[in-house]
Known about the structure:
Elements: E1 14-17, E2 22-26, E3 30-32, E4 39-41, E5 47-49, E6 54-56, H1 59-68
Antiparallel strand pairs: 1-2, 3-4, 5-6
Amino acid sequence: MNRFEKPVTGNEAQLRYLDADFKIVRGGSFVRCAVTGVPIPIEELRYWSVARQEPYLDAAAALKRYQELGE
């Protein structure tokens, strides 16, 4: 971690992933990447799968999941 990154603290949120947005089902400050397990602050969440209802840290993690599932 560098000096610009803040450690993720608080409770893990539960979200419902929609096409261009998400709905908070259970409040919290972060979700965990489905591929890497790294916590993602809610305000930095940009990648997710509506079909699988799972979040991804970045585009590379999303691509890895799609490739694993043969999509």
